[in-house]
Amino acid sequence: MEVEHTTTPAGQDVIQAEGGEAKEMVNFTLNFKKEKYEISWPWDDKIGNLRAHITQLTGVPIPLQKLMVKGAVKDDSATLRSVGITQGAKVMLIGSTISDVMKVNLTPDQASTVVAEEETKSTEPLCEQTKHKKIIEKGLPDNVLRGVKGRNDPLPSTPLVGVLNNRGTNVRLTFKIWSQELWISSKTSTQQIPFPQIRDVTSEPIKGHEEYHIVSLQLGQTNTEHTKYYLYWVPAQYTKAIRNSVLGTFD
C-alpha cells in the first residue's frame, strides 16, 4: 500500500493511504524545560497515543505528563483537534523524568546510584533481551531488503523498506537529507523526526542474522530506554550511512 503526502489549501499536511481514508496532520511545537520539539501528528488521533510518543522524546512517563493547551489536557481519549491543538500551536509539557523523581525522593548517594544504573547500557546483546526478542521472533519481513555483512554502502535513493519499528509494525524509512528529517512510514501514518531531535544513533547485529542490525535512535536528551526508538532488520551495509547522515558525522 502506497502512502502519498499532499497539502490542503490551508497548508495542512495530509497522509493519503491508498484505498483508505486520508489522515490530516497537524504540525506544532512541544516546549519542555529548555527543549523544543517539532511534532507532526494525525490531527484526529487520540491524545493518549501522542503521550506515548512524547515519552520517547522527553523521557517523561505518561502518568507524570501534564500537557497545557488552553489549559490542562485531561481526557486522553480526546483528539488533538478537539483539545485545540492547531497548526503552528505551542504546547507546553510539565512533568518529571524518572531520574528527576529519583533525585527528589532519594538521598544524593542513592539518587546518583539509581541514575547511573539507569543510564548504564546492558552488557547483554539487544537481540537477546526479552522485549527485542519478541519482535525479532516475528521473523524477517516479506519485503525486507537484502542485508550484506561487512560492507558500508551509501543510503539508497529509494526508501528502506521491510523494517520493523519498536511496536513490530512494518515501516519504511525515508531520509530527507535536504530538509534534515527522517520519515518513518507505516500503511496508516508517517512520523516525521527532525535530525536535530536524534541525539545518537547506534546499532548491533542480530545474532544468527549478522547481515541485519537493530538500530537505536536516541530521541531525548538523556540516554535511557524511555528516549530510545528501535528499528529492526535494518540491512547492515546501511547502518554507518544512517548514523553519518542523521548526526552529520563522517567517521
UniProtKB/TrEMBL annotation:
GO terms for molecular function: cadherin binding; RNA binding. Pfam families: PH_UBFD1_C, ubiquitin. InterPro entries: UBFD1, UBFD1_C, Ubiquitin-like_dom, Ubiquitin-like_domsf. PROSITE patterns: UBIQUITIN_2 (PS50053). Residues 26-94 form the Ubiquitin-like domain. SUPFAM superfamilies: Ubiquitin-like (SSF54236). This is Ubiquitin-like domain-containing protein. It comes from Acanthamoeba castellanii (strain ATCC 30010 / Neff).
